[in-house]
Design brief:
The chain has nine helices and 16 strands. By secondary structure, the chain is α+β, with helices and mostly antiparallel strands. The chain folds into two domains: about 170 residues, Ribosomal Protein S5, domain 2 (2-Layer Sandwich), CATH 3.30.230; about 140 residues, GHMP kinase, C-terminal domain (Alpha-Beta Plaits), CATH 3.30.70. Strands 2, 5, 10, 11, 12, 13, 14 and 15 form an eight-stranded antiparallel β-sheet that branches. Strand 3 and strand 4 form a beta hairpin. The structure holds adenosine-5'-triphosphate and the ligand C[C@@](O)(CCOP(=O)(O)OP(=O)(O)O)CC(=O)O. Adenosine-5'-triphosphate binds next to helix 1, strand 9, helix 2 and helix 5. One of its GO terms (cellular component) is cytosol.
Length: about 325
């Protein structure tokens, strides 16, 4: 059976950093994000006796090594939950991202969310999005939140009943505009998760984050733009501080990143514009502002010498009709 799904990537708000279990991908703490659109991944899967082995192709390239293992973990999780006989056959997966990967724009989140959604359908699971979020999680924890979409929280826990993503209701998507400043510096987020707990800042971050999560939830429920994006800006600094003080002293911000951060602060402090920066594990910057100021903000970000796009809030992962199959 063949199935196709799409999912939007995430921008972290209270960001996820570090896993207590790297096989089940159980994070140390909860995390909250929003999905971005129209950026998306589209993925088609098919289990068939005509295939010799599991094969995965992303943006025209056949996966191997670690990238292959991560997709295989998602396939195996879907197989383990399925009673359908045909899931013993090899699977073919093809996927396309509408935006660059490994530059801090969350390609692993939409990638594994679209894979999990399509696999759940092809394996006839009849599962809710919350349940599918646990399948996506074994590829990438951020992918759990991309399954449930919009503003979502991945709850940590030691099992799939607890460690799953749930939506947080908010109307903030109505006025929010996200100017993306693309800084194409390649990285693998797994490297940062691996050494998260080895930074002396990690315990402090872990202790601090519970209050941040409570304030973020409250800000989202009450549609408080400044509260939500000030917290996201602050957490970007906390995440970078923790990563930079790990064993490899990894600095993922680039000169263009800092130029955007300074520009955002100037617009806010000197021109009174509601605008906040946010970075995930990478050099690219999300600049969160409102519809009224988006053109002015985009122009200022572009003046930093980077290419820009304007994104909105995206919904949950969803199945697509057969005319959207990639093969
Ligand atoms: N469409 C896809 N399907 C399956 N796997 C994907 C897809 N797109 C990206 N990936 C995997 O996700 C990895 C990139 O994600 P990584 O965990 O480094 O960071 P991220 O923070 O989610 O991504 P980004 O840097 O794009 O923000 C790639 O190396 C690849 O293995
Ligand atoms: C802070 C982030 O950038 C962390 C993203 O981590 P990944 O989802 O890429 O990690 P893996 O589970 O190793 O795939 C955004 C977030 O999810 O908060």
């Amino acid at each position: 059976m063949k199935a196709t799904a799409m999912a939007h990537p995430i921008q972290g708000l209270v960001k996820y950093h570090g896993m207590r279990d790297e096989v089940k991908r159980l994070p140390y703490h909860d995390s909250i994000s929003l999905c971005t659109a129209p950026s998306h991944t589209r993925t088609t899967v098919e289990f068939s006796m005509d295939y010799d082995e599991d094969t995965f192709v992303v943006d025209g390239e056949e996966l191997d090594g670690r990238a292959y293992e991560r997709v295989e973990a998602v396939v195996e999780k879907a197989r383990s939950k399925s009673d359908a006989a045909h899931t013993v056959y090899p699977v073919r997966l093809e996927s396309e991202n509408s935006f660059p990967s490994n530059v801090g724009l969350g390609s692993s989140s939409s990638g594994f969310a679209a894979a999990a959604m399509a696999l759940a359908e092809a394996a006839e699971l009849d599962a809710s999005r919350q349940e599918i979020s646990t399948i996506a999680r074994v590829g990438s924890a951020s992918a759990s939140r991309a399954v449930t979409g919009a503003f979502s929280q991945l709850h940590t826990g030691l099992n799939d009943e607890d460690c799953r993503s749930r939506r947080i209701p908010s109307d903030l998507h109505e006025d929010l505009k996200i100017v993306v400043g693309l800084v194409p510096y390649h990285k693998e987020t797994e490297d940062a998760h691996d050494e998260a707990a080895d930074s002396h800042m990690f315990q402090a971050r872990n202790a601090h984050i519970h209050g941040q999560l409570a304030e973020m939830r409250d800000g989202l429920r009450n549609n408080e733009f400044d509260t939500v994006f000030e917290l996201a800006e602050h957490d970007s600094l906390s995440l970078a501080a923790t990563t930079m003080t790990g064993p490899s002293g990894w600095v993922y911000w680039q000169p263009a990143t800092l130029s955007i951060l300074n520009t955002v602060r100037e617009l806010r402090e000197e021109e009174d514009i509601p605008v906040y920066f946010s970075t995930d594990t990478g050099a690219s910057v999300y600049v969160n502002t409102t519809e009224e100021y988006v053109d002015q903000v985009e122009e200022a970000v572009a003046d930093c010498g980077v290419s820009t796009t304007v994104w909105d809030v995206g919904g949950p992962a969803k199945l697509l009709d057969e005319e959207k199959h990639l093969f």
